[in-house]
Amino acid sequence: MAALVIDNLSYTYPDGTAALAGASLTLAEGERVGLVGPNGAGKSTLLLHAVGLLPSRGQVTVAGLDPDRKPRDVRRQVGLLFQDPDDQLFMPTVAEDVAFGPLNLGLSREETLARVAESLAAVGLAGVEHKLPQHLSLGQRRRAALATVLAMGCRTLVLDEPTANLDPRGRRELLTLLARLDSTLLVATHDLDAVLDLCERTVLLSGGRIVADGPSAALLANAALMDEHGLEVPWRLR
Ligand code: ADP
């Protein structure tokens, strides 16, 4: 079964702004896909639909489930990493932030503690359980936010600009750990080098439409296509 199916999705915000105009996209289980496009292309809007935070009227299916009908089940399948980790971390300690999701799913205290330990280890944050999230670096906060999603047991992760504003080391650490996950990934980003490293496939969204979809190296090397949609071919493909 596909991890995520978006079928001819259109969406207009209540103020009349058309953000998506018939976008279709299928992610196979375990696939890692870069979602690129100029500002205003509709990337964030598409991610919000993929996790059921905007109504999709049957045009989105997550692991066979309709997010409008089965929001709780969908929340166990797909998690969103917000661009700003402070939107995701709101408890007094890192451990409580990571425990929040599993406890809400109704898991036992033991199971929750096990998931907290496992998720923090997976993001290289074992040892900071009792720190205040505000006392971590941006790179650590973003990894803590990732742990909150992993602790929910989500098989599919949807990431909004995961490398934005990280220093080179923080960026490299995050990309390394994302590459180690066996999750299905949909990564919206302007960091085309990160896409090349992490994602075998890239989807180009522009004006609410998917205008290209294919192997990352070939798509990102297409100078005419990149130029037409306000992007640049990464240096190492020139
Ligand atoms: P991207 O993530 O590619 O920059 P967005 O999905 O954020 O694109 O935006 C797509 C379009 O929808 C843009 O024209 C943007 O201004 C508009 N938009 C985004 N969020 C809202 C909102 N909450 N209300 C109205 N318009 C919005």
Overview of the molecule:
There is one protein chain. With 238 residues, the protein is α/β, with parallel strands linked by helices. It is 35% helix and 23% strand. The chain has helices at residues 43-50, 71-77, 94-104, 109-122, 138-150, 168-180, 192-198, 216-220, 223-228; strands spanning 4-12, 18-27, 32-36, 60-62, 78-81, 156-160, 184-188, 201-206, 209-215. The strands form two sheets. A six-stranded mixed β-sheet has the order 5-6-7-3-8-9, with helices on both faces. It has a three-stranded antiparallel β-sheet with strand order 2-1-4, covered by helices on one side. The longest helix has 14 residues, at 109-122. It is globular. It binds adenosine-5'-diphosphate. The site of adenosine-5'-diphosphate has 12 residues, from helix 1. Adenosine-5'-diphosphate binds at residues 13, 15, 17, 19, 37, 39-45.
